């Protein structure tokens, strides 16, 4: 029996938002106000599509984007945690569910030689067009009113677990590590033996504590973290049991 570790990416594995980090490639390192103000809530992927068109129109090429993205810092203790998971893969399955995109996550993990830690990455598909522009698409369609149009992380998690069951794999515990508002939907899907690990001071922690104040707490256990060293000590404790 194994544990399933589910990671968000932005502000969880890396200490920044990969989508906003790419603005460092723009002229004067920032996006024009008109473009920034064109974002509509729940439609982030379409917004990023416009950002990539703007970068392409300004002559920003793939190699420059890659150089910029691989300078994004990892969250404190995260590289050590991921090495620890990689050394204990017989105990852990490990996936990413993220609102970033396949190109950014692939570049960042491969540059740090951490890509083999993860069994699967679920994120918005991205690719460079024949004209050298980066394009991005919605991950899937869904009917969840709580989540952004392009991605319901609960749906991703549920479908992954169903597929694993068909392969004869079930998990003694799911550990969900994230920070954002869109991580609440999958956290509410977790059961009492599972554990949610919201990053301290971020939206997910605030939303979980608000639910507890409203007397409808999440069913799973909750362990707040500020450094990935705290996640590692929890997993080390599980291994020793």
Automatic annotation (TrEMBL):
Cofactors: Mg(2+)
Which protein family is named in the record?
A: Belongs to the HAD-like hydrolase superfamily. PHOSPHO family.
Q: Which Pfam family would be a valid example here?
A: Put_Phosphatase
Q: List the Gene Ontology MF annotations in alphabetical order.
A: metal ion binding; phosphatase activity
Q: Which residues bind Mg(2+)?
A: 8, 10, 179
Q: Where on this chain does substrate bind?
A: 19, 99
Q: Quote the gene name from the UniProt entry.
A: Phospho2
| Protein name stated in the entry | PHOP2 phosphatase
Q: Which UniProt keywords apply?
A: Hydrolase, Magnesium, Metal-binding
Q: Does the keyword Transcription regulation apply?
A: no
Q: Does the keyword tRNA-binding apply?
A: no
InterPro entries for the chain:
HAD-like_sf, HAD_hydro_PyrdxlP_Pase-like, HAD_sf, Pase_PHOSPHO-typ
